[in-house]
Amino acid sequence: MAFRSGFVSIIGRPNAGKSTLLNALVGEKLAIVTRKPQTTRNRIQGIINIERKKPTQAKEACVGHPRPAGQVVLVDTPGIHKPINSLNRRMMKEVYDALEGCDLLLLIVDATAKFGTGDQFALDIVKKSGQPCILLLNKIDALDKQKLLPLIAEYKSLHEFAEVIPISALKRDGLDMLLDTVVRALPEGPRYFPKDQLTDQPERFLVAELIREQVLLTTEQEVPYATTVLIEQYEEGARLTRVAAVIYCERTGQKAILIGKQGATLKKIGTAARLQIEKLLNTKVFLELFVKVQAGWRDSNQFIEGTDWRKNLG
Ligand SMILES: Nc1nc2c(ncn2[C@@H]2O[C@H](COP(=O)(O)OP(=O)(O)OP(=O)(O)O)[C@@H](O)[C@H]2O)c(=O)[nH]1
Ligand SMILES: [Mg+2]
Question: Fewest CB within 10 angstroms: 92, 112, 215, 230, which?
Answer without folding.
Answer: 112
